[in-house]
Amino acid sequence: GIRGCGKNSNHVKPRILLMGLRRSGKSSIQKVVFHKMSPNETLFLESTNKICREDVSSSSFVSFQIWDFPGQIDFFDPTFDYEMIFRGTGALIFVIDSQDDYVEALSRLHLTVTRAYKVNPDINFEVFIHKVDGLSDDHKIEKQRDIHKRANDDLADAGLERIHLSFYLTSIYDHSIFEAFSKVVQKLIPQLPTLENLLNIFISNSGIEKAFLFDVVSKIYIATDSSPVDMQTYELCCDMIDVVIDISCIYGEGGLPYDKESMAIIHLNNTTVMYLKEVTKFLAVVCFLRKESFERKGLIDYNFHCFKNAIQEVFDVRVKVQQNRKLLSQRRWSKLSMTNGTLSNPH
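^ thats the sequence. predicted structure below, dont judge the formating
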């Protein structure tokens, strides 16, 4: 049946499936977001011919498995256990190549979504309208509107209006792919409302205008405050993280490029200050604030200290829950094997 490449792991982690037609850009997305591959290098990637499983556990918040599927999956192949695959899935990302005629992709999307929904109605269905870097803004919006309408019409015709699809315009040549992945991952974090709330309290008490909680390795933002996200602001955050990591790698004192002393301040030329601080081994807060607010850095640092402790508590609870789940499943197994043992023991 299924042969995975990459490490296998326990099944507590949510699973993200990457699906779509051959050459739509699935493997490139994974390599750029999680392996820091430069977009130009992806041109040399081979076509995926078997399911590739990969653990993404760069932080205890972003811990999930990504399954990259080959383009042509035959749902009617008896060795393909899609029931098992869809049952453990948190999100299904379907990648559509926007530069291609997407009639076939849409019918494939429909088949995939309806199959998956039957097995597991709780899956988040995410559609990446991909390779939009060559299109004008008007053209992008037009494509999105067209694909959105056709995909939803297909579902309506099948009497499946209750299935919700989310659409994103993506490209590996800018930050849109990281933004889209951030939104997908956030839906899989049960603590998201708590994190958002903590960020809201932190910024309102510190005179900060916008704050992001970033997973440093993947540049996915785990949470942000409730004010809207501006793409340019997000790009600046990603660039700042890159600068901090690069300089630490080159000039830092041995060891890790990112640790509990990590901190950076950048004064932008429009009276705005960017401030990055380490929250945990994997997470950083990046804030935007006005120069005059930054004069009260002592207050900001005190509030940050309170925020960091609160985040640590959220982490501790999460770790405890995961450990309890593991213990429970281990106990169930040992009970099962004990009862099986006594049944098969004739004495």
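Residues 327 and 333 are 10 Å apart (CA to CA).
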